[in-house]
Structures are given as C-alpha cells and as structure tokens.
Design a protein that fits this description.
By secondary structure, the chain is mainly α. Helix content is about 70%, strand content about 0%. It contains 19 helices and no strands. The longest helix has 25 residues, at about 115-140. The chain starts with 6 loop residues before the first helix and ends in a 21-residue tail after the last helix.
C-alpha cells in the first residue's frame, strides 16, 4: 500500500485521485500524521488545497504537536498571514504556556497592537484563569492597556463567581478599588450570574451602586433571558419598580417584535417625554420597517394620541435628523447604546444633518 512507503508517497498517491476523494483522504491522513511529524506537514501546508475550515483544523494539530512550541510559532510567523496566522498564534500561546509561562507572556507582549495581539492575550488569560484565577486577579492592576485588563477580568470572573461569590462582592466593596476595574468586574459578574439565574443577576445589579454601563448590562441580561423565557421576563419586569429597567426591556423587546414592544410601552409606562423608550423603539422600527411603523403611529393618531410621534417617525423615515429635538436625539442615542453602536455615557447633544446613524 502507498501509505507504507512514507508520507511523500502518500501525497503522490493522493494526487492521482478525483478531487473530492483526494480532499477526504488527505484530510484524514494529515490530521493523523500531524501528531507524528508536525514539521513535515507544516512544510506541505501551502500545497494542501483544502477548504478553510479543514486547513485551520490541520493547522491547530500542527501547532499543538510541534515541540518546542517556539519553533511552531516561528514557522507560523514566517509562513502565515491573516486568519491562519491568528489561529496559529492562539493555538501556539497554549503550547508556549504549557512549556513555560513567561515565554508565552513574552511572545504575547512582543506582538504589535491590534486585534491579533488582543486575541492572543485573551487566550493566554483564559488558560491562566482556568489554572489559577487568583494569581491573574492579583496581576490585573499591573496589566497595561484597558482592553487587556478587560480581557483578563472576563477570563477571571466566571471562575471566581462559581467558586466564591461573596469574595467577589467583598472585592467590589473595597473603597480603594479603581472605578473602571470595579465596573468591569461588576459587568462580568452580572453576566456570569445571568448565565444560570438572570433574575438573581438583575436583583444583584439593582442593589449595587449606580455605574455607567448599568443600562447596557441590563440590556444584555434581559436580551439573553428573553431568548429563553420571554414570559418569565415579562412577569419579572412588570412587577419591577425600576422604571429605567422597564424601558431597557422594551427597547430590547422591540428588536424582536417592535409592535408588541411599542404597545407594551404604552400600557406600562406613563413617560411620554421625547427622550422616552417609545421614541427609541420607533427609531429602530422606523429604520427597519418604515411602513409598519408609520401605520402604527397613524392608528395611534386616529385616537388623538399620535401627533408628536407622527412628526418624529416621518423625520426618521425621511432621514431628517436635523429636525429632531434634543430629547428625541437622546432617545436615539439610548437605542444606539443598547445596540452597541455607541458606548455608554455619550454626551447629550442635539444631532444635526444626516450623520446620526448608518443602519
């Protein structure tokens, strides 16, 4: 058999097959042989002619099995680009960490600023946190860069919350804790709690001191909960005294069913000011389905309640953003913040021209 004559013979034999059969048999051979001689497979990597998913899986096997890991990373640096390089580096950092933690740190730190560096550090922090999240927590204040610190915290908190939530709360209550770090840990702890008990997470957030991204965190938790149990969310929110949370829910609900969300908002809120959630809902609805949004507002107008909304929706549909009031602009900003278009705590400004949104 050709397979008994060495890997070069296998490659030669596979080239004689029909393309679909060649790909199938080549993939199986490469995945197996990468465990035996990853360096040989690396030399052949540019000749594989497989689909991207298969090549990335093979690449992971190459990097994972090549010892020392520094040689694998060096090969990847010299021969790969783009998403392939990212796959190699993220797998490589795992191997480097397993051989020598400081070597992995030095490698990650040597990368130029950008998404690849962030991804490699995130992978490094995930490994570190799963091994010893407490030592990573102690290192967080020394980590350079907001993005890196945020990635480290997001790696730490799920382990910390699962093991000792009271310790998380005690840490957050330290008056000397950096404000940004406190908010980041609060967000990550809330999300970790919400993964198993969203009601408990929202109750816990309500009892925490007010922080800038509370609305965004509420939106994330409510959105995830809605996807699993809309009835449970409705019951929770309708029994809540938190007016801001009701509005946050309505805006998130509108991304699923804007008409039901708008009707719910009318029924459950006495706030009809121009910066209210109803204007936020109409903004998103008007951009996505102007006919339905205008019809709903028109029906509201027939009941003598829709005149201010009619002018607003017409301005949104016709992209006349310069005609909006300051309050209406703030309602739009809130929709954008909850949708991740804008970060929290944007300045309250009147928007002019047609540069408000690019849906």
């Amino acid at each position: 058999m050709a397979e008994a004559q060495g890997p070069e013979s296998v490659f030669a034999y596979l080239e004689t097959l029909e393309e679909s059969e060649r790909r199938e048999k080549l993939y199986g051979f490469l995945m197996a042989y990468a465990k035996i001689d990853p360096e040989f497979i690396a030399k052949k990597f540019s000749e594989l002619r497989l689909d991207e998913v298969s090549e990335k899986l093979i690449l992971k096997e190459i990097i994972k099995n090549w010892k020392p890991a520094s040689m694998a990373v060096e090969w990847a640096t010299s021969n790969l680009t783009g998403s392939m390089l990212a796959v190699a580096f993220i797998e490589g950092i795992r191997s480097l960490y397993g051989e020598e933690k400081q070597l992995a740190m030095n490698f990650a730190d040597s990368l130029p600023p950008g998404k690849l560096r962030d991804s490699v550090f995130k992978s490094l922090y995930d490994i570190w946190a799963s091994e010893d999240y407490k030592s990573l927590l102690a290192a967080v204040p020394k980590i350079i860069g907001d993005k890196n610190r945020m990635n480290a915290v997001s790696s730490i908190v799920p382990h910390w919350v699962a093991e000792d939530f009271n310790a998380v709360e005690s840490y957050l209550n330290d008056e000397h804790l950096d404000v940004g770090l406190r908010e980041n840990i609060t967000r990550q702890a809330g999300l970790a709690l919400a993964s198993t008990n969203p009601k408990q997470a929202l109750d816990w957030i309500s009892n925490r001191p007010v922080f800038d991204s509370k609305v965004v965190l509420d939106a994330q938790i409510l959105s995830g909960w809605m996807a699993k149990d809309l009835k449970g969310v409705l019951e929770f929110v309708e029994n809540s005294d938190d007016v801001e949370r009701k509005e946050t829910f309505a805006i998130e609900f509108s991304k699923i069913d804007p008409e039901s969300a708008a009707n719910w908002m009318l029924k459950n809120s006495d706030n009809h000011s121009e910066d209210s959630a109803l204007y936020s809902i109409l903004f998103g609805w008007g951009l996505k389905d102007s006919v339905a949004a205008q019809a709903w507002v028109s029906d509201l107008g027939a009941n003598s309640n829709g005149t201010p909304y009619q002018k607003f929706i017409d301005n949104i549909v016709n992209r006349k953003f310069g005609n909006l009031s300051i309050g209406q602009s703030e309602a739009i900003q809130r929709y954008d913040v909850q949708s991740g278009v804008l970060p929290p705590q944007q300045p309250r400004v009147h928007r002019h021209g047609d540069t408000i949104h690019t849906h």
